[in-house]
Amino acid sequence: MQNTYSTERLSIGPLTTADISFIRELVNTEGWVAFIGNRNVNSDEDALGYIQKILNNPDVRYWMVYLKETSVPVGIITFIKRDYLQHHDIGFAFLPAYAGKGYAYEAAKKILEDLLSHPVYIQIQATTVPENASSIKLLEKLGLKFEKEIVVENETLKLYGIAKDKK
User: Fold this and answer.
1) Which residues pair with 90 in a beta bridge?
2) Who contacts 10 (Cβ-Cβ below 8 Å, separation ≥6)?
3) Sequence ranges of the domains in the chain
4) 79-137 tens-digit pLDDT
5) Which residue from 8, 118, 154 is spatially nearest to 69, judged by alpha carbons?
6) Domain 5-120: CATH class, spelled out
7) Dihedral pair phi/psi, residue 153, rounded to 5°
8) Closest CA to 110 of 153, 69, 79, 84
9) What value does the CA radius of gyration of the chain take, rounded to a whole number of Å?
10) What is the CA angle 21-7-89, rounded to 5?
11) Are 35 and 135 in contact (CB under 8 A)?
């Protein structure tokens, strides 16, 4: 699994403690709060704590996604081994100003292809709340297939998955 990636329009690299203001903005967007949940990141100190918690957890990996031309951060791709899933979970979140431009697909596709090329990842999963139509659309475009609904902490989630090509 690589630390950095590049696509036609994007540069993708690991989350660092220098990303405080971006993370603070992202986790407080309407979409994040509605579909992922309030993380109570209300200050730079909160954002730093949030980032350090991610960086200190070997089961969690976040990549920052930047516009190649301007180096402006636009979103994140996540890769998390959740207790309630058999396989790692890929996720994504982008600032509203950059939604609908294909950036999430471009970044997630690049990372997903790399992850599925590694022998350890025979399948990758993703979860979303049923109301998150744009996330569902993107997961399906990436080739993930709906598997079933699961209930986690009294919340119903749609579970998607993609298996490694058996060539």
Assistant:
1) 79
2) 65, 66, 67, 68, 74, 103, 106, 107, 110
3) 5-120
4) 999 999 999 999 999 999 999 999 999 999 999 999 999 999 999 999 999 999 999 99
5) 8
6) alpha beta
7) 50, 50
8) 79
9) 15
10) 65
11) yes
* Residues 62/15, Cβ–Cβ less than 8 Å: yes
3-state secondary structure of 30: helix
**Are residues 17 and 48 in contact, defined by beta-carbon separation less than 8 angstroms?**
yes
CA angle (107, 108, 110) in 5-degree steps: 65
Q: Token pair 């979409």 is at which residue?
A: 31
Q: Are 162 and 145 in contact (CB under 8 A)?
A: yes
Count CB neighbours of 74 within 10 A.
Answer: 22
What amino acid occupies position 70?
Answer: T
- Phi/psi of residue 111, each to 5°? -70, -45
